[in-house]
Design brief:
Layout (H helix, E strand, L loop, with lengths): L41 H11 L4 H7 L1 E2 L7 H7 L3 E4 L13 H15 L2 H4 L6 E4 L17 H7 L2 H17 L4 E2 L23 H16 L15 E5 L13 E2 L3 H8 L1 H8 L4 E4 L3 E2 L2 E2 L4 H11 L5 E3 L17 H6 L4 E2 L5 H13 L5 H17 L23 H14 L1 E5 L11 E5 L6 H5 L22 H11 L3 E4 L11 E7 L21 H10 L5 E6 L7 H5 L3 E6 L7 H6 L72 E3 L7 E7 L2 E4 L4 E4 L2 E6 L7 E6 L6 E7 L8 H5 L3 E8 L7 E6 L11 E5 L1 H5 L7 E6 L1 H4 L10 E7 L3 E11 L12
Parallel strand pairs: 1-11, 2-3, 3-4, 5-7, 6-8, 7-10, 13-14, 13-15, 15-16, 16-17
Antiparallel strand pairs: 8-9, 12-17, 18-30, 19-20, 19-24, 21-22, 22-23, 23-30, 24-29, 25-28, 25-30, 26-27, 26-29
Helix pairs in contact: 1-14, 2-13, 2-14, 3-4, 6-15, 7-8, 7-15, 8-10
Length: about 850
């Protein structure tokens, strides 16, 4: 089913064809036997058995271990002969973000040569390198970055998708890498999920068709150039149901029926596996409370036996460690459930390897299960020709760095940008713009290639990147400037919307900051709730009678009614990638006033009517979006949206209670850590210490309902730190909007001799310091308190907001720091609504 075109909000040209109601079947009968294009051959199967017959248990288990490049050496590869390895998002050769393609090739070559060196492990089986090239070869500086999947879904062009995948495969192979962890085939049903932009559509049929197209683009076609020298191994991920967790919670629980799990969430596997995808990545999420990494029914009975998948299943980043009874270094359950390759970053790879060997010897894991896993791994390696192909440094595209970011690839990306744009509003046909005018370009996204590219861009979260780190790329401003200059117009760039000469029109580029999995989860869809700085910019320009074109960067549809009302034209850009200049190709006519390109993008996700419309999918009962699935204006459309959309909504009770952080126990999603300078240690017991800092639980009202910090002779700032679990960002902008304070009980138990600071931040461990931090000095407040008595202390959240803390992405809500000898206790930490005006520390 394709996207429908739409000419106005009221009138959709082509009716949306809905699927018939799901016909419930029983259990395994729901799942089909796939007609996979890649068939088994006697030659490959015979060779697998020949290799297997020579392998020891240790060599077989090594094939099932996939460590990360930060955690192994070339000598480790020579000693163990790992079947594969990966680079995680934001991981680079030698840890250098500025690594050149030559650096990537050298590491690939060194590890490959070590893998086929049998001097220590007795094995000559070649290893393979997997990477998250999810919108181009996105970890490599200078690569072509394509629009993220949500934009490609709006383009609705499977042929274009195949070209994008082919170009990505070429750029990946330049760096000596064999294997790509793509495509993501989640069908997102709750747009609060932080990986919504990694999905093509809420429509499973779009996901199915795109999955087939991208697999063919990466791997080639069966019987033609399948896994030839021009192609890489692909991975459909994440099996299964990651886009349908309760509340859009990353790594959460999917409670769909089995019929819905197949018809909604598994269609990408129907398309991708029938096209010949050789690997499947297991998902972090659970299905009805059971983690997929340990789900034998889904991994083995459904995927392998019923659907007939004969490639291998790889885990996600220590996902096996989340299975009940498992740790990162010990998980027989996942192996027995059908996991073939353990993705095991960090040093946990070694105990995992040792435990798997032991568990086979003790009969906990049957040898037949190990043999099945290794058979599958070898089958893929043989199909990919890894035993015959030259080493990574000597393959067809290896080292041809001119292919990375080459014009042909950037032209494909520009086409994708142009086709992905969705025009939601065009009052009085403001667009297309005449380039022979004076244009103001404003907003913090106007000249920011990192922001327009989103997450999974050089770094994992896509943060802390500068324009200089995108050689060959262009910002949206670059494109506007080129169009206007070519037509003898003039342009000013000013992020804040100031100007020397009053413009004929203002183009304002704004939207979400980059994020990736976990950090992108939201509580609601109200854009910039409580911190409407972009709305203020739009209003500022409109008050000066300047027509405003709003260009909205986002990884999901959002509630932007106020921003729509204060714009004359509004375009959803999604996350266009490195080729931002292509946006201007659609916005402007040529110098002679002729259209260059029309708006052809159509919504592949329904657009919300309220911030709480996160679960809004075509075919739902009481379906009432602001813009329906398939909506999108063209230049020939009549826009009837107007400027009077509702700008208020009823506050739901579920969003109107303060968030508890510590109430005797840490409340989800928060965890407690000790911090000493750059070192941190998770607190899991009633007592703990880190350097000069010690911690213990004490009794305030009931047993162990408070925590005591003792600091002695500290040389660096040390203290108690509360952060979100896994350091994911939490959306608590509701607290800021409701005039909240951070309140807690505190008891000074020693003299206060040095400064005591209370910090907040929206940066995770390991992030480079940025502007998303705030600090409040509570020293004088503590000095004024009677010692050994409990006192209430509260801080207006505006104190942190004014310093740049983004409450839609909070990581650390409470970090108490000092360098002096001090002992104090805290309890009852929470965000309290309607208390900012009475807070102990106020910041107006």
């Amino acid at each position: 089913m394709g996207l429908v075109s739409a000419c106005s909000q009221e009138s959709v040209v082509e009716p949306v064809k809905e699927k018939p109601a799901m016909q419930e079947k029983n259990g395994i009968d729901i799942w089909p036997r796939l007609n996979v294009e890649v068939k088994q051959t006697d030659e490959v199967e015979s060779r697998i058995q020949e290799i297997m017959a020579t392998m020891t248990l240790e060599q077989k288990v090594a094939q099932m271990i996939q460590p990360e490049i930060r955690d192994i050496t070339v000598e480790d590869m020579r000693q163990y002969g790992f079947g594969s390895y990966l680079n995680g998002g934001g991981s680079f050769p030698q840890g250098n973000k500025q690594s050149t393609p030559e650096d990537w090739i050298k590491l690939a070559e060194d590890l490959y040569q070590a893998s086929i060196d049998d001097s220590l492990d007795g094995s000559t089986i070649p290893t393979m390198w997997g990477t998250d090239a999810v919108h181009g070869h996105n970890n490599v500086i200078g690569a072509t970055l394509f629009p993220h999947n949500i934009g490609l879904g709006a383009a609705n062009n499977p042929e274009l998708i195949e070209k994008i995948a082919n170009a990505t495969a070429t750029e990946v192979m330049v760096t000596g890498i064999d294997w790509v962890f793509a495509p993501t085939v989640a069908t997102v049903r709750d747009d609060r999920w932080g990986r919504t932009y990694e999905s093509y559509s809420e429509d499973p049929e779009i996901v199915r068709d795109y999955a087939a197209a991208i697999v063919k683009g990466l791997q080639g076609r069966a019987g033609q150039d399948f896994l030839s020298d021009n192609r890489v191994i692909s991975t459909v991920k994440h099996f299964v149901g990651d886009g349908g967790t309760v509340g859009g919670d990353d790594q959460g629980d999917n409670v769909a029926s089995e019929q819905a799990l197949f018809e909604i969430h598994a269609q990408g596997y129907v398309g991708g596996l029938e096209a010949g995808a050789q690997s499947v990545m297991a998902s972090f999420n659970s299905w009805h409370g059971e983690k997929i990494h340990g789900h034998k029914y889904l991994l083995n009975d459904v995927l392998k036996e019923k659907m007939g998948f004969d490639g291998f299943i790889v885990g996600d980043w220590n996902g096996h460690g989340q299975v009940k009874g498992c740790t990162n270094g010990d998980c027989a359950q996942a192996a027995n459930a059908g996991l073939d390759i353990f993705m095991v970053p960090t040093s946990a790879w070694k105990p995992l390897y040792e435990n798997l060997v032991r568990q086979v010897n003790e009969g906990i894991i049957p040898m037949s299960r190990i043999d099945d896993a290794v058979t599958r791994i070898l089958r893929v390696k043989l199909r990919a020709g890894l035993f015959e192909k030259p080493s990574p440094a000597n393959r067809k595209f290896s080292g041809k760095t001119e292919l990375i970011g080459q014009k042909a690839h950037r032209d494909i990306a520009k086409q994708a940008v142009r086709e992905s744009l969705v025009m939601l509003k065009n009052n009085e046909a403001l667009l297309p713009l005449n380039p022979n005018t004076h244009i103001l370009v404003a907003g913090d996204g106007a000249n920011n290639i990192g922001k327009q590219s989103g997450g999974w861009t050089i770094t994992w979260q896509g943060t802390n990147n500068t324009n200089e780190e995108f050689p060959g790329g262009t910002s949206i401003y670059d494109g506007v400037k080129a169009q206007v200059s070519a037509a003898n117009g003039s342009v000013e760039l000013n992020e804040n919307g100031d100007f020397f000469k009053k413009p004929d029109v203002a183009i304002v580029v704004f939207g979400e900051e980059p994020y990736a999995e976990g950090h992108g989860d939201r509580e609601h869809l109200d854009y910039q709730r409580g911190q409407k700085s972009d709305l203020a910019l739009l209003k500022k320009l409109q008050k000066q009678d300047i027509p405003v074109v709003a260009l909205f960067i986002s990884g999901r549809p959002m509630w932007v009614n106020q921003e729509l009302n204060n714009s004359d034209a509004f375009v959803a850009l999604w996350l266009p990638g490195s080729e931002g200049s292509a946006v201007a190709d659609v916005l402007f006519t040529d110098a002679d006033g002729k259209r260059q390109y029309d708006f052809t993008g159509r919504l592949s996700f329904s657009w919300p009517n309220s911030p709480y419309d996160a679960v809004l999918n075509k075919g739902d009962e009481d379906y009432s979006p602001l813009f329906p699935y398939g909506y999108g204006l063209s230049y020939d459309s009549k826009d009837t949206l107007g400027n009077d959309l509702s700008e208020t909504y009823e506050e739901l009770e579920a969003f109107s209670t303060g968030k508890k952080i510590f109430t005797g126990t840490m409340q989800k999603p928060w965890v407690l850590l000790l911090s000493e300078g750059d070192k941190e240690e998770l607190v899991v017991a009633s007592t703990a210490s880190l350097g000069t800092l010690s911690y213990r639980t004490i009794d305030k009202e009931v047993q162990e309902d408070a925590i005591r910090m003792t600091l002695t002779d500290a040389t660096v700032p040390s203290g108690l730190k509360i952060a979100s679990k896994s350091f994911f960002r939490e959306d608590i902008s509701n607290e800021l909007l409701n005039k909240s304070s951070l309140s807690f009980m505190i008891k000074p138990e020693s003299a206060i001799t040095e400064a005591v600071m209370l910090n907040m931040s929206c940066e995770s461990e390991g992030d480079a310091p940025g502007s998303c931090r705030g600090s409040v000095d509570i020293t004088e407040n503590l000095k004024a308190m009677e010692k050994d008595k409990w006192h209430a202390l509260s801080v207006d959240l505006q104190c942190f907001s004014q310093q740049g803390v983004d409450f839609s992405g909070l990581v650390v809500p409470f970090h108490l720091l000092s360098t002096g000898n001090i002992q104090l206790s805290v309890s009852d930490i929470e965000f309290s609504f309607d208390t900012a005006d009475s807070a102990s520390i106020k910041c107006k």
